[in-house]
Design brief:
The structure holds 2 protein chains of 2 kinds. Chain A is of the alpha+beta class. Helix content of chain A is about 25%, strand content about 25%. The radius of gyration of chain B is 16 Å and the shape is extended. Classes of the chains: A alpha+beta, B mainly beta. Chain A: Belongs to the UbiD family.
C-alpha cells in the first residue's frame, strides 16, 4: 500500500475512524499544541487532528494537520496494515520490508506543488498557520519537513543526496534557523560546503505522505537513498520530482516545497526548543537558511508535529525505524537476537530479547548495542530478556526484571561513554555512564537462582486465545 | 489582550528595545507577530502574558544580550580548504 500524498493518507485515516476534523474556531496558541498534547496524553490509539478554522486565517484556507502518525493504529495504516495490528507484528513487517532496499523510484515532472510559485514577497506566515509548540520555544518551528541536500564534493551522487528531518526555527518571513549537527548527513554536506567557501543549497518539503517522513528519521548509511528505502517500506516505487532551482529530488506529493541555501560561515542564536527528551534544548548559535523560492498547492495543509514529554507523535514515527535498525545490526552478528524494542526516547533505553548461548552471552549483546553507530548517541540503559519474553510487552519485561535480574550479578556499568548532548543527565553534556541490566535466565556455566519450575500456560491456551479474539471482534 | 495593549517595544526574553513587527494576520486585525532582532525571540499579540510581557516572562528562560556572542556555535565553522 502506497499513499500518493498526505491528503490520500488523511482520507484513509478518515475511513478507518482515525481522523478527527475540528472546525470550530481555534487560536494558533495555545489551542493547536494543547490539542495534540491532549491526544497523546489520552491514548496510544488516538486519531490524527485536522483544524480548518484558525484565528487570523480564512476558514478552510489555513489548515493544520497534527498527530497524523501519532498512534499505533495510524502507524499500522501508514504501513497499509489492519489498524489493529500489534506493535510486535508491525515490527517484524517493517524488518521484512527493509530487506527490499533499495526499492525503485519513479520520476515525474507534474508535481501538485508546482501549482503556485513565489519568488518575491515571500512570507511563510501568510501561507502556513505557523504556531508556537511549547510555551518557552523561542518562536515558531517547522519540525516535520523533509530537508533535502547534496554532497557538494559529489553533487551528482543520488545515494549521497540526503533526506532528513531537522528542527527549523522560522526566524523571519523568509529566513530560517536549522540544526544540522556534525553527526548528521546534512552536517557533513554543510561542512564540505563551508570548507569550499560556498553556501549549501537546500530544498525543504512540507506536508508529505507518512513513509518518507518515517524514513527521513532513519539513521541510514551516508550513501543510502531515503527514497529507495521509502520504496522498500511502502512496497511500491517512490515518486519524486526535481525542484527547479536546486535540481534536488523532492517528494512528488508534497504540499509545499521551499528552496534556499544555508549561508556559509553564518551562525546565529537559535532555541530554546522543547525537545523529545521532555526538556528544553537551551540556545546555541546555529546555521541560517535564506529562502529564495516557495512552491505550493493552493490552500496547502500545514502538517506539524507536537513534541515534548514522551510519548508524542515523534515517539511513534521513530519507534520501529530505530528498533529495526538495531535489530538488524545485532542480528547480523548474533542470530540469537529475537527482537529489539528501542522506542524509549529514541533508544536511550532499549530492551533486547535474546536466546543465551552460554553464561554472560546476553551481557555481551547488550554491550554490543552500545557500540553500533546509533548506540554511540543512545542505548544508555539496555535491558536483556529471554527470547520467549516479548520486549514490546512491558508487563512481561517488568516480570523478567523483577524475578530474573540480580543486582549483584546482572548489572554492568560502563563509564564515560558518548551520548547525545540533549540527554539532560549527561555530564558533561554528551558523556554518560551506561548500564546493561541482564534479566535473562542464567545459563551454564553461570548457574544460580531457582528457575527450574516455571508456571507454563494451561494446555489449550493458544486455541482459547484465538476463540476469545474471534468473539471480541 | 488585543493589539492595542500588547507589548510591542521590549523583548520579553532579553529586554532589548530592538523589536519590530514580523508580520500580521492574513485576515486583517486578528493578530500581529513581533520579533526581537537581538535574540530572535518572536511572539504573537494573542498569546498569554507569559509569552508577551517582559515582567511575566519566566526568569529561567530570560537571557542577557551580552551573553549571546559567547553562546557555543553548533556546528563550528570549519577552516576553508586551500
Amino acid at each position: 500500500m502506497a499513499y500518493a500524498d498526505l491528503r490520500e493518507f488523511l482520507a484513509t485515516l478518515d475511513r478507518d475512524g482515525q481522523l478527527l476534523r475540528y472546525s470550530d474556531p481555534v487560536n494558533p496558541e495555545p489551542d493547536l499544541a494543547a490539542a495534540a498534547r491532549a491526544t497523546a496524553n489520552l491514548t496510544d490509539r488516538g486519531p490524527a487532528l485536522l483544524f480548518d478554522d484558525i484565528n487570523g486565517y480564512e476558514p478552510g484556507k489555513g489548515r493544520v494537520a497534527l498527530n497524523t502518525v501519532g498512534s499505533w493504529p495510524n502507524h499500522a495504516l501508514m504501513l497499509g496494515l489492519d489498524k489493529n495490528t500489534t506493535v510486535k507484528d508491525q515490527f517484524f513487517e517493517f524488518a521484512g520490508r527493509w530487506d527490499a532496499f533499495p526499492g525503485p523510484i519513479e520520476r515525474r515532472d507534474d508535481a501538485p506543488w508546482q501549482e503556485v510559485t513565489l519568488t518575491e514577497g515571500i512570507d511563510l506566515f501568510q501561507l502556513l498557520p505557523l504556531f508556537r509548540l511549547n510555551s518557552y520555544d523561542v518562536g515558531c518551528y517547522i519540525d516535520k519537513a523533509a530537508v533535502i541536500s547534496r554532497d557538494p564534493d559529489d553533487p551528482d551522487n543520488f545515494g549521497k543526496q540526503n533526506v532528513g528531518i531537522y528542527r527549523i526555527q522560522v526566524k523571519d518571513k523568509d529566513r530560517l534557523g536549522i540544526q544540522p549537527l556534525a553527526a548528521h548527513d546534512i552536517g557533513l554536506h554543510l561542512q564540505r560546503a563551508e570548507e569550499r567557501g560556498e553556501n549549501l543549497p537546500v530544498a525543504i518539503a512540507l506536508g508529505n505522505e507518512p513513509v518518507i517522513t518515517t524514513v527521513a528519521g532513519m539513521p541510514l548509511a551516508y550513501d543510502q537513498s531515503e527514497y529507495e528505502m521509502a520504496a522498500a517500506i511502502q512496497g511500491a516505487p517512490y515518486r519524486i520530482t526535481k525542484a527547479p532551482v536546486t535540481g534536488f529530488d523532492v517528494p512528488w506529493g508534497s504540499e509545499v516545497v521551499i528552496e534556499g541555501e544555508i549561508i556559509a560561515g553564518e551562525r546565529e542564536i537559535e532555541g530554546p526548543f522543547g525537545e523529545f527528551t521532555g526538556h528544553y534544548s537551551g540556545a546555541r548559535r546555529q546555521p541560517v537558511i535564506k529562502i529564495h523560492r516557495v512552491m505550493h498547492r493552493r490552500n496547502p495543509i500545514f502538517e506539524h508535529l507536537y513534541l515534548g514529554m514522551p510519548w508524542t507523535e515523534m515517539d511513534y514515527t521513530l519507534a520501529l525505524n530505530t528498533s529495526v535498525l538495531l535489530y538488524r545490526q545485532l542480528k547480523a552478528e548474533f542470530p540469537e537476537v529475537a527482537a529489539v524494542n528501542a522506542m524509549y526516547t529514541q533508544g536511550l533505553l532499549g530492551i533486547i530479547s535474546v536466546k543465551q548461548r552460554f553464561g554472560g552471552f546476553a551481557k555481551a549483546v547488550g554491550m554490543r548495542a552500545m557500540t553500533v553507530p546509533h548506540g554511540l548517541a543512545y542505548c544508555k540503559v539496555i535491558i536483556l530478556v529471554d527470547e520467549d519474553v516479548d520486549p514490546f510487552n512491558l508487563a512481561q519485561v517488568m516480570w523478567a526484571l523483577s524475578v530474573h535480574y540480580h543486582p549483584l550479578h546482572d548489572t554492568v556499568t560502563i563509564p564515560n561513554l558518548s551520548v547525545l548532548a540533549l540527554d539532560p543527565s549527561s555530564d558533561p553534556a554528551g558523556i554518560t555512564h551506561k548500564v546493561v541490566l541482564d534479566a535473562t535466565t542464567p545459563v551454564a556455566p553461570e548457574e544460580r537462582g531457582h528457575y527450574s519450575q516455571v508456571v507454563g500456560n494451561p494446555e489449550g491456551t493458544a486455541d482459547w486465545e484465538n476463540i476469545i479474539k474471534g468473539l471480541l471482534k | 489582550m488585543n493589539d492595542t495593549t500588547v507589548n510591542d517595544t521590549i523583548c520579553p526574553r532579553c529586554d532589548a528595545e530592538n523589536v519590530r513587527v514580523l508580520t500580521t494576520s492574513p485576515v486583517p486585525g486578528r493578530w500581529t507577530m513581533y520579533v526581537c532582532d537581538t535574540c530572535i525571540y518572536s511572539w504573537r499579540s494573542t498569546e498569554p502574558r507569559s509569552a508577551t510581557d517582559p515582567l511575566a516572562y519566566p526568569a529561567e528562560f530570560k537571557i542577557d544580550p551580552a551573553d549571546i556572542p559567547s553562546i557555543p556555535a553548533i556546528p563550528t565553522v570549519p577552516p576553508r580548504r586551500r
